[in-house]
Amino acid sequence: MKRLLMTLVLVTATAFAYAQNAKMPDNITLKSLDGQSVQSSVIQNDGKPIIISFWATWCKPCNKELNAIREVYEEWQEETGVKLVAISIDDARSASRVKPHVDGNDWPYEVYLDQNQDFKRAMNVVNVPHTFILNGEGEIVWQHTSYVDGSEEELIEEVRKLVNGQ
Amino acid sequence: MINNIKRVALAGAILFAGFSANAQGILGGHVTGNIQIDGQTSRRDSIIGANAVEEGLLLNARADVLYTNGNFSAGIRFEAYQNPLPGFNAKYKGQGIANYFASYNGSWLSVTAGTFYEQFGNGMILRAYEDRYLGMDNAILGFKVAVRPVNGLTVKGVFGKQRYYWEWGDGLVRGVDAELNFNSIIKSFAESKTRITIGGGFVSKYEKDETILADNPEYKLNLPHNIGAGSVRLDLSHGGFNLQAEYAHKGQDPNVLNNYIYREGQALFISAGYSQRGFSANIQAKRVDNMCFKSVRSETGEMLYINYIPSITKQHTYAFLSMYPYATQATGEMGLQGDVMYKIKKGTVLGGKYGTDLHLNGSVITGIETNHLGGRGTEGYSSSFFKPVGLYYTDVNFELNKKISQKIKLAVTYGFIRFNPVVEGHAGKIHTNNVVVADLTYKVTPKHVLRFEAEWMGSNSVYDKAVDDKRCGDWLMGLIEYNFTSKLFVSVSDQWCYKDGIGNYYNISLGYTHKATRIQVGYGKQREGIICIGGVCRQVPAANGLTFSLSTSF
User: Fold this and answer.
1) Domain contains B75
2) pLDDT in tens, B267-295
3) What residues make up the domain containing B153?
4) What is the pLDDT of residues B285-322, one digit of tens each?
5) What is this structure's pTM?
6) What is d(CA B267, CA B308) in angstroms, rounded to the nearest whole number?
7) Does domain A22-163 have CATH number 3.40.190.10?
8) Which residues in chain B touch residue A34, judged by CB atoms under 8 angstroms apart?
9) Residue B93: C-alpha distances to residues A119, A158, B96 (Å)
10) Less Cβ around it within 10 Å: N or C end of chain A?
11) For A19, which of B30, B276, B359 is closest by C-beta distance?
12) B 477-506 residues with CB below 8 A of A?
């Protein structure tokens, strides 16, 4: 038992030691808003940065965040080429209201459903909102949980750093 | 303990297999994970009904570790409940490896061995899922295979046993599901404005015989050992219009929740709507009849559910709007929900400089008609499909969100809720509650934010010693929260039952967030109540003391 645990710890430590930035898994099945199953590899932005935001229709801070970014999204895109992909973790109770919710809020984002929460688990998301920044290679370079008004500024600052190669 | 050693060994072996299968593995692979620890103390407070925690401190903790290398991944989850937080089932007491799996995810084939979560359609015949805040986990231990032979077609198969706290339930669960997307399969249809997906599944459970007596104790029930449930579904959209429907049917399944009747079960869920940028309207309808489906027929608690019946009421987050949440009645209910969202454009008279968001939502849930035919061992009852009987729940709510200036944002919500205590399983009169919430955010500096929340609830519920429901009466609440950037916040709040009720509940919270790490400490009184997520609810007892929570992802 002890030896096994030790080995496990060693193996984990080795993996840590070598680990670069973890990549976003590209083989998780998600659903597009028109009901089609897609692989997470569809999350792409031609080598430019991507923001992934995990949210749910019932989550107040998530809605605040996505509404706040809506107001500045065009400027962000022009400046950095960044793209925001919103992953809804709504389950069957509210999943059919995701598309109306996105349209009703006039969100210009690419949105996918993660009803079985496979992507949420693969990305180690505990609570929503949880936001990731991926670099052009799809590696996770920054992540943050929770939202208060104004923290979208920190998000874009991180994207700027990435674009400027810092 | 032996079991745990075996689990660790297995997990180790799985991880090893992954590494050795690909020598590049260690270099190319990634270890990620997350940890969460929640703790609570409480002292006795007879006014709010809080008990002292004899252990001094209660702790729930869990850690997921995930190894990923290309298409291969493996993970384990360690959980510890020493002892479980109030409201969590005492059977969780203990610690160990609760979850372990290895999985291959290729472009056309996925296989998972070990524990897994899965959902067919809306979950009405199968949904294995977990919710850590509800203490709910019905993971399946077994195999899951998904095949995508052509783009647009997915066929899934699962089998295994379900988690029962620290054991695995006796019943076997087997299921297959297929989903077909016409736009991907038929080339000429690829660019069509009409998008069509259809699907269907079948789930069967096996359980060995046991002795259950009929109402006439001279007879023993002849219990079915294999019970099947099937469903068909449709997802259709055309431009801004969309329609989703699913129908599920279950064979004879006498169990403790339906009092061992032999009536077959059925459920129907329909959602239809129209949306365009800045506007959406949506209506949902549901009817459920005898659809409790568990892998062990005699289990009454929250575990071992094979299926999930979605609730179609809005999931509220403000304290008073969620004081009386609706819980799905899988034995029988019908309901309707409507939802309209509209964004008044900026630059108009009503929209002002920044625009205004409006959201109207309403739902009504009732019971189904039941004409009694007999007790245990009989058909049970008959029911006409379209006849609602008895109100369970009504909710009409309206929300307005407005940015007033660069610095000030205001959200105002009004809710009208009629609630029948029978949905929580106890007697009591249907009562009516009116709730008003004002939520104001003020940006002191671009990164420092002050938030005020005020809530009022007027209710005609009356405190009754026999029921001892401490939520009764009229309430007021105030909250002030200050955010020093997104890193640090402090909040002070008080909920006060100022009429016909019991209690005054103050709370002070302090939270620190750095990247994906969050630490929160609170001190104060917690109202006894109900936490619901997705129509599944958990009772939370009153507490008076310290709470803390730490979560991190790496």
Assistant:
1) no
2) 999 999 999 999 999 999 999 999 999 99
3) 108-266+286-309
4) 999 999 999 999 999 988 999 999 988 999 998 999 99
5) 0.91
6) 11
7) no
8) 183, 195, 237
9) 29, 43, 10
10) C
11) B30
12) 483, 485-486, 489
